[in-house]
Amino acid sequence: MLPPSLSKADLHLLYVFTSVVEARGFSAAQIELNVSPSTISRQVSDLEIRLGMKLCQRGRSGFRVTEKGDLVYRSAQRLFASIREFSETVDGSRKQLVGNLSVAVVDNWVFNAVSPFSSALKEFVDLAPEVAIELFSLAPDDIEMAVQDARVSFGIGVFHRHKPGLIYETIGIERMGLFCATGHPLFGERDNSKISEVLKMSQYAKRAYLKERDVAPISRGLQTNANAHQIEGIAYLILTGRYIGYLPEQFANVWVKEGKMLPVGEGQFDQPSELKLVKKRGAEHNLVVKTFEDLVLAFSVQQNLV
Q1: Dihedral of CA 85/291/143/99: which sign?
Q2: Is 81 within the bounds of a domain?
Q3: Residue 151 domain-assigned?
Q4: Range of the domain at 189
Q5: What number of other Cβ atoms are within 10 A of residue 225's Cβ?
Q6: In this prediction, what percent of the chain has a pLDDT beyond 90?
Q7: Which pLDDT belongs to residue 238?
Q8: Residue 83: inside a domain, yes or no?
């Protein structure tokens, strides 16, 4: 068991272990750590001896984190997040924008031309050129988990079911369209009676990270044998010409302009979706995080998104 006061060596061993877990193996981690796999293996063994537990399985069968190893990994993440927060808070007390900014954003949001995020990021980089920025593009559930685990300071995405312990603030509206692609019977169809008839026989590409029956009523009576965990996966399914599914309009416009996709029924099934900033309840944000958060909210108001 580690002593109450962690040494620099202890922190280094924990850092090595988290790097191995995130790289999913010793060989892959050598690029990040700049040491040989044998050295990494020895350091992880040293940590296992210090903790008195097996953290991972390695060998011909591959790399796998044990249940206890996963617990140590998540605890180490929170520890390093606290250390970063301490450092950034001290720097912030001197009114200097230095340190780290870690943010998770919903996947494929870069296609949204009116999002406040790009404008806020540009302004922030000009204000704080010394801040190290880490961005993640994740599905909504993964964003919430990253915020809860303190791996990121806050996240931005579409969250239909709010989790306890998190605070959600609306920063904009994104229009979601029900799309089909060339080869699908609904492609270009304008007759409402024909649309209703074909819809009943259509396969629906389900978003695995949402309760579709609640957020998209049209899906309740539709067949579905495929789901995707990211928006990009929904797009792949739609482009087969065998599925219909919801996509952000700005994202789908890439294929609409090429004549490969169209909104079903000329957009009559489209629906708005609230984009929200999510952060951990009770978390004390430093000057760096507060500055970027304020910029996102300011650009949301400026662009009349809220």
Answers
A1: negative
A2: no
A3: yes
A4: 97-306
A5: 9
A6: 25
A7: 96
A8: no
* 102 and 231 part of one domain: yes
Taking a C-beta distance cutoff of 8 angstroms, is the pair 71, 103 a contact? no
- Contact predicate 156/104, CB 8 Å: yes
pLDDT in tens, 130-149: 888 999 988 888 899 999 88
pTM (global) more than 0.90:
no
Report whether 116 contacts 306 (CB < 8 A): no
Q: What is the chain's Cα-based Rg?
A: 23
The number of folded domains in the chain is 2
Distance CA 141, CA 163 (A): 10
How far is 299 from 118, CA to CA, in rounded Å? 10
Beta strand pairing status for 100-106 and 132-138?
Answer: parallel
Residue 252, CA distances (Å) to 137, 187, 222, 248, 255 in order: 18, 14, 21, 6, 6
Same structural domain, 71 and 107: no
Looking at the structure, do residues 26 and 138 belong to the same domain, yes or no?
no
Per-position DSSP letters for 174-186, written without gaps between them:
EEEEEEEETTSTT
